[in-house]
Amino acid sequence: MAGMALNFFQSFKAGSGKALGGRYTLLKPLGEGGFGHTFLAKDLHLPGHPQCVIKQLKPSDRRPSQLQVARRLFDTEAQALYHLGTHPQIPRLLAHFEDNGEFYLAQDFIDGHSMAEEFEATPWNEAKLVTFLGDVLGILAFVHQQQVIHRDLKPANLIRRRRDNRLVMIDFGAVKQVRTQLAVDQPNAPRTVVIGTQGYMPSEQLVGQPRFSSDVYAVGVMGVQALTGQPPETLLRSPNTGELDWHRHTQASFELVTLIDKLVRYDFRTRYRDAQAALAALKALPPHLSQHIPSKPAKKSDLPNAWSPNDIPDAPIPPAAETQQTVAVVGRSPADAATHTPAGSLDPLPAPPI
């Protein structure tokens, strides 16, 4: 941990006599990156002092005008996270607050392990993959129904929860989005600031134009990785079609390969348009495969109206051309993204007709 971060942790760690926001003491660092730091903490205001996760955003520009922009953006992103946290497989937002010109999120701590660990032991059998796809697409269908694009789906942003073995989706990029927007607003800043992870991002996301089907692509890449044991950065593309060349690395069934192929199409207009359509197609697989889709998740005890993937109809949804639409990419609108300049090795696709 860098020196400044270490000093921050020492200032608010348990036993220091100081509480972040007057409420949280830090137990240990969980991670760090260009957008901030994440800590395991305990909440001194609740009975039993339960553990939670604190995410920090430290604006690089401390001018009052920029702090005001950061405050507005942070409040907007927190509202989106609050609504997402009503799903039983997304951590709840417990609080968002400002302390000494820095911004923090407090979220549920999920006891479990990162799916990155399970992806180290690939290839998987088809049953395990269908269970994984059903769980991820079930959560993601809810996210898309809230008009939100995750933008950074990958094994490290999925946790296998210990108590029920179900997946939990994390890191919706609210802190990243605020930091990115502040960076773009700087004089002479580059217009291309992409949130995501190389290998899991499709071409349209690389040029700053993410869509619902961009998340679908990331799920498909994880499916390819699980079936073949090949990390995404090692997968080659056909020079003629631009599609991922992965079939020779697996002996999976025709039906499952066909579904994953449509998840990872290069042209977003030929993918499943969103997670709901992809989940319906998964449920339409032959019974020997579809029987492995997880059942309805347990609801959060204080949120009786929690959504579940079983709310998706069983009948497959026919493919349709994707049209331009207003969505939250937890923050940036398509109009903003359209001003970005191209990035990445593949040519961007033209915008679909309205």
Rg, Å, rounded: 21 Å
Average pLDDT, to the nearest integer? 80
Beta content:
5-15%
Low-pLDDT segments = 302-348, 350-354
How many strands in all? 10
> What is the string of helix and strand elements?
HEEEHEEEHHEEHHHEEHHHH
Give the neighbour order of strands across the main sheet: 1-2-3-5-4
Helix content bin: 25-40%
Largest sheet: 5 strands, antiparallel
What is the approximate shape? Answer: globular
Helix/strand structural class: alpha+beta
What's the helix count? 11
Distance between the amino and carboxyl termini: 48 Å
What's the arrangement of secondary structure elements?
Layout: H1 3-12, E1 24-33, E2 36-43, E3 51-57, H2 64-84, E4 93-99, E5 102-108, E6 112-114, H3 115-118, H4 126-145, E7 158-161, E8 167-169, H5 174-184, H6 203-206, H7 212-228, E9 236-237, E10 244-245, H8 254-263, H9 275-283, H10 287-290, H11 334-337
Antiparallel strand pairs: 1-2, 2-3, 3-5, 4-5, 6-7, 7-8, 9-10
Overview of the molecule:
This protein has helices at about 5-10, 65-85, 115-120, 125-145, 175-185, 205, 210-230, 255-265, 275-285, 285-290, 335, and strands at about 25-35, 35-45, 50-55, 95-100, 100-110, 110-115, 160, 165-170, 235, 245. With about 350 residues, the chain is α+β, with helices and mostly antiparallel strands. A hairpin with a 2-residue loop joins strand 4 (about 95-100) and strand 5. The model is unreliable at about 300-350 and about 350-354 (pLDDT under 50). The termini are far apart. The longest helix has 21 residues, at about 65-85. Helix 2 runs antiparallel to helix 5, helix 4 packs antiparallel against helix 9 and helix 7 (about 210-230) packs across helix 8. It has 11 helices and 10 strands. The strands form 3 sheets. It has a 5-stranded antiparallel β-sheet, sandwiched between helices. The protein has a 3-stranded antiparallel β-sheet with strand order 6-7-8.
